[in-house]
Each structure stands twice: as structure tokens, then as C-alpha cells.
């Protein structure tokens, strides 16, 4: 089984978000970039398929050279090879088009992406990729088993979960639950050394029309001060929620 | 040229988000000088969408669609969009709508923007405001394709009753085969989900252990609220992952969010930031949550919450 894990290069969850150039660009100054957490759960599940079922695992990112340390980290965790599509990730659709080419050329059976990236939160790349390549698709996936070409997956739905059966080729939108937080791997020295020797192939992008374009950003308006209520005077809180906030 | 909107139902009853997306679609249609067509699948009383601004409802009645399937539903909406020659398609941010949206976008060759929070500021170029960086910011995004697909962030627009009426037409799309089959659905029917809840009551490590969760559940019951938890609580296994809210968990966009024993890490606050009113109860007055909340009580959850539950019970009884 050939697995491709899509890796988004995103600001660490603790990052302060700021913008530059007249609020048109994300300010990367001082920001630590990491593997998108939803992708990391998928990568770790892919490692399980590699170790238990003999799958091969490649990782891919669509982005400039600055994303390579993130791909190297994925190699250090245990992926076999990395691919970087050398173009700016403008929007979800352009990223999906680039990935579709990689998936078709590489003949991958299973593609695991995060259900969404934690920067732009579009939540569209895995579904678009599945539709473009004609693969089956399960998102918000919290459990995945593969047996031959058959797959059993669990999808989180609003207020519960559903179990589905499907088959390869398959695209997964993964999240926590695919593996547990405690299963995530921190690259060790040996992994980091080996990652330096693993192939990282740079491929040039295919033409893709830009369908959506972010022209500016803003931060939420600063919040007013909290209204403190005395712990001995809970009636006051009920009163405020009813008469002032009007939420009860 | 028209606006088409997919309206979700469950066991034949429209969900609240269905009325919200129709209200929102109506606002866009007014701006464009056109009308709203809704598509409803196996829903009772489709004409009721007229009250929120739909002029026409395409009613699909097909037993093979009783269980949600992203590919089949996307195909039905795609066919409806093409039949109506619609150039704006509106969906909600439910798990199901977010599942089908990218498939629909590819089928319609439509530019898709999710997590949209306002009516488009401009229709040429078509520009929408959406959340980004998990609610730490907003982006203004242009959609440059002929057909535009918008995923509306839940609870960002609200319901607007216009008192209109809608004509209902039967619509019979060709349903394609899907390679994904639902084997079983495991859903608590007596509990309100975090996505649909008007009120969410959430607990953190300050509750000291899973055995104390009755505190959260009792309060949630009085408020008909969903229960949620912080990341450490789910990582410790005190509560299921499905209750984890925050940047890597579920987003919350409720009217009221009550955080109990949660300090308010930046990742947690990002995930719940879209909630309209936030209340924090924490022993530590320095907890970062107090900077993000509207109302706060510095106090011990084990003393404050039972009193709050009783007071709310009395309040509800009085105002029932």
C-alpha cells in the first residue's frame, strides 16, 4: 500500500497572529512553524500502517523552500520520502490541484490529510482532492483500519459518530482520534540523522486558476473588561445573563 | 441568476441552521436583486422555509437519501444549482455540510470559502469576510469564479423571519453510486450537540477529576446546554475527545459559553472565541480566561456551580 500524507506548514498553536504590509500578509516574524496538528495525527497513523502492514509512506507539502524543515521533521518521524510542490499555497483549490497531480503521478492508494489546517481553516483540500482524483472520501476521521483494499473508518458527526465501510483509493481528512495525543512521536537523534539522507524531491507546479484570494486581514476588536461578580452574589450573575446579555 | 441554499433536516425536521442559512441567503439575494431557492431532502413542511425568505423550495424525496452521504448529497445540490442557474450557493458549517462542500465545489467549478461570518461586503468583486487562524483573525476573501460557494459559520447571522411564502416543487435528481457506505450511527439522541447548542458548559482541570463531572452536567441540564471540556481533560481521558473544544478540537459558536475551572490557554480561547457571551468561573483571578470573558466569578467551582445551578433552576421555573 502506497500512502501519501499531506503536510501543512502552520504557525504553532501558541502563536500570536499579526499582519504586515497594510494588513495584507501574515506576519511570520518570530513565529514557530510546525506540522499541522491534524496532519500529525494522520502521519502517526500512517507510521502504524508502515510498521504493521508494510506500507510505504511519502509526505507532501505545497509551498516555498521555507516549508522544508517541516517536511524534514516528517521524515525524521519516519516517512520514507518527501515531495515539495514549489508554489505558494494561495487557496485550498490550488493546493488540491497540485496535490491531485502528485497523487495521480505517484499512484497512491491512500491519502491522509488533516481535516483542516489550523491557519486558514478552509477544511476543503482533502475533499477537493478526493473529487479531483475520483477517490472515496471520509473526513473528520477518528479511526481507520485497512484490510487489503477495504477500509473501515469512523467519522465524527455533530453529536456522535458513524462507522463507514469504503475502499481504496481513499482520501482521509484526519484529526485527533486517528491516534491518541500520547502516540505522537518526537523525532529522536537517529531519526533526524536519517532524515537528512532521505529524498526530498522538488516538483514544479501545474497551472491553476486562482479561484479565491484573500485581500486583507483584520483582528477581532479588543474586548471590553470582564465584569466580575462576587462569588457570594450569584443572583447578580443570573440577573446579568438575563437582563444585560439576554442569553437566558 | 439566483441564490440557492441547502437546508438540513434530521428525521424530517429542519435543523435551526437551515433557517439561519435561508435567512442569510435572503440577505445576499436582496443585495443582488434576486431570489432564494432552497433545496430540502426528505423534510416535512418545506413551505415553512418561506418564512425565512425562500421563494421556492426544491423538495427531494428519496429513501436512498435517508442516511447522509456526502457524494450523493453533493450531486443532488449540484444538479439543483445547474437547473436553477444559480450563481451563489450557501451551506451551513455543520459536519455534514462541511463534508459535502469541497465535493460540490469541484463539481460546480465554484470558488469555495468556508467559515463566512457576514453578508458579502461587495458583489463585484464578490468579497466575503471569514474567520482565519482559528478565530484569532478575519480574512476578506474575493471569490473570482462564476459560481460562488459560501459556507456560513453557524450562529453568525441568526434567524430573520420575513413572513414570506414559498412555492414547493418536487425535484428528482439522479443519485450516483457512492463508494462510502454508512454501517452504523452512534448518536446520543437525548443530548444536544456542541455544534447545535445555544449554550455550552465546559469544564477544565480545575474540576480535579472525572468523578466531579456531575457539576458540569447538572448545570448543562438546567440550561439545555451541551457539555464540553478543555484539551488537558480530554488528553487525561476524563472526558471523550468529542467534547474537546479549542483550536485542535471542536469550535464553539454558541450564544453562551460557561467555562468552569479552565485557565484559558490561547488555543482554548481561539476555539471558543466565536461564542457571543463568555462566563468564567475560576479560583485564580490571574487566569487568562478573565481577559477573554464577559462575566467572571473568582471562586471555587465546587461552591459556586451548585449554587448557580440552583439559582438558574429557580429562574427557569419562574420564567417558564
CATH architecture of the largest domain in chain B: 3-Layer(aba) Sandwich
Radius of gyration of chain B: 21 Å
Which two chains share the most extensive interface?
A: A-B, 82 and 92 residues
Largest β-sheet summary of chain B? 7 strands, parallel
CATH superfamily of the largest domain in chain B: HUPs
Number of helices of chain A: 6
- Average residue pLDDT of chain B: 96
Can you identify the CATH superfamily of chain A?
Answer: HUPs
Q: Looking at CATH, which topology of the largest domain in chain B would you report?
A: Rossmann fold
Helical fraction of chain B equals: 25-40%
Helix content of chain A: 25-40%
Mind telling me the CATH class of chain A?
A: Alpha Beta
Protein name (chain B): Electron transfer flavoprotein subunit alpha/FixB family protein
Pfam families (chain B): ETF (PF01012), ETF_alpha (PF00766)
Keywords (chain B): Electron transport, Transport
InterPro entries (chain B): DHS-like_NAD/FAD-binding_dom, ETF_a/b_N, ETF_a/FixB, ETF_asu_C, Rossmann-like_a/b/a_fold
Amino acid at each position: 500500500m502506497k500512502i501519501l500524507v499531506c503536510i501543512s506548514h502552520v504557525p504553532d498553536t501558541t502563536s500570536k497572529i499579526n499582519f504586515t504590509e497594510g494588513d495584507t500578509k501574515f506576519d511570520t516574524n518570530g513565529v514557530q512553524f510546525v506540522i499541522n496538528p491534524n496532519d500529525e495525527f494522520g502521519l502517526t497513523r500512517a507510521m502504524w500502517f508502515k510498521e504493521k502492514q508494510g506500507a510505504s509512506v511519502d509526505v507532501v507539502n505545497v509551498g516555498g523552500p521555507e516549508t522544508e524543515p517541516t517536511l524534514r521533521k516528517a521524515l525524521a518521524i519516519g516517512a520514507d520520502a518527501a515531495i515539495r510542490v514549489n508554489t505558494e499555497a494561495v487557496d485550498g483549490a490550488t493546493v488540491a490541484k497540485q496535490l491531485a497531480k502528485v497523487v495521480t503521478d505517484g499512484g497512491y492508494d491512500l491519502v491522509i490529510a488533516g481535516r483542516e489546517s489550523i491557519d486558514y481553516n478552509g477544511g476543503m483540500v482533502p475533499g477537493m482532492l478526493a473529487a479531483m482524483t475520483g477517490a472515496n472520501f471520509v473526513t473528520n476521521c477518528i479511526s481507520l483500519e485497512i484490510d487489503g483494499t477495504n477500509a473501515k473508518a469512523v467519522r465524527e458527526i455533530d453529536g456522535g459518530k458513524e462507522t463507514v465501510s469504503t475502499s481504496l483509493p481513499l482520501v482521509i481528512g484526519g484529526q485527533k482520534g486517528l491516534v491518541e495525543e500520547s502516540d505522537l512521536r518526537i523525532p529522536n537523534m537517529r531519526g533526524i540523522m536519517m532524515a537528512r539522507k532521505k529524498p526530498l524531491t522538488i516538483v514544479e507546479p501545474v497551472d491553476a486558476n486562482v479561484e479565491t484570494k484573500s485581500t486583507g486581514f483584520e483582528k477581532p476588536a479588543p474586548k471590553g473588561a470582564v465584569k466580575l461578580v462576587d462569588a457570594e452574589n450569584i443572583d447578580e450573575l443570573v440577573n446579568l445573563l438575563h437582563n444585560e446579555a439576554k442569553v437566558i | 441568476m439566483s441564490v440557492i441554499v441547502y437546508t438540513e433536516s434530521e428525521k424530517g425536521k429542519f435543523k435551526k441552521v437551515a433557517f439561519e442559512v435561508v435567512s442569510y441567503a435572503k440577505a445576499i439575494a436582496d443585495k443582488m436583486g434576486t431570489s432564494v431557492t432552497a433545496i430540502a431532502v426528505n423534510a416535512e413542511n418545506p413551505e415553512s422555509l418561506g418564512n425565512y425568505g425562500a421563494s421556492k423550495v426544491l423538495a427531494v424525496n428519496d429513501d436512498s437519501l435517508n442516511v447522509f452521504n456526502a457524494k450523493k448529497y453533493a450531486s443532488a445540490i449540484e444538479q439543483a444549482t445547474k437547473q436553477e442557474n444559480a450563481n451563489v450557493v450557501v451551506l451551513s458549517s455543520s459536519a455534514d455540510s462541511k463534508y459535502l462542500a469541497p465535493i460540490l465545489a469541484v463539481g460546480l467549478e465554484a470558488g469555495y470559502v468556508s467559515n463566512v461570518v457576514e453578508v458579502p461586503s461587495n458583489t463585484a468583486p464578490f468579497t466575503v469576510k471569514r474567520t482565519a487562524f482559528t478565530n484569532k483573525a478575519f480574512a476578506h476573501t474575493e471569490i473570482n469564479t462564476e459560481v460562488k460557494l459560501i459556507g456560513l459559520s453557524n450562529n453568525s447571522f441568526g434567524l430573520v423571519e420575513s413572513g414570506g411564502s414559498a412555492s414547493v416543487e418536487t425535484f428528482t435528481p439522479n443519485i450516483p453510486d457512492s463508494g462510502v457506505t454508512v454501517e452504523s450511527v452512534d448518536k446520543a439522541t437525548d443530548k444536544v450537540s456542541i455544534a447545535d447548542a445555544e449554550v455550552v458548559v465546559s469544564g477544565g482541570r480545575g474540576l480535579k477529576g472525572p468523578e466531579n463531572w456531575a457539576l458540569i452536567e447538572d448545570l448543562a441540564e438546567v440550561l439545555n446546554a451541551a457539555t464540553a471540556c478543555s484539551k488537558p481533560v480530554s488528553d487525561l481521558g476524563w472526558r471523550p475527545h468529542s467534547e474537546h473544544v479549542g483550536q485542535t478540537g471542536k469550535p464553539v459558536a454558541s450564544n453562551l459559553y460557561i467555562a468552569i475551572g479552565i485557565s484559558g490557554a490561547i488555543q482554548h480561547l481561539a476555539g471558543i472565541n466565536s461564542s457571543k457571551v463568555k462566563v468564567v468561573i475560576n479560583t485564580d483571578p490571574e487566569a487568562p480566561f478573565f481577559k477573554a470573558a464577559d462575566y467572571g466569578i473568582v471562586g471555587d467551582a465546587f461552591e459556586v456551580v451548585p449554587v448557580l445551578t440552583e439559582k438558574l433552576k429557580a429562574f427557569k421555573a419562574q420564567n417558564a
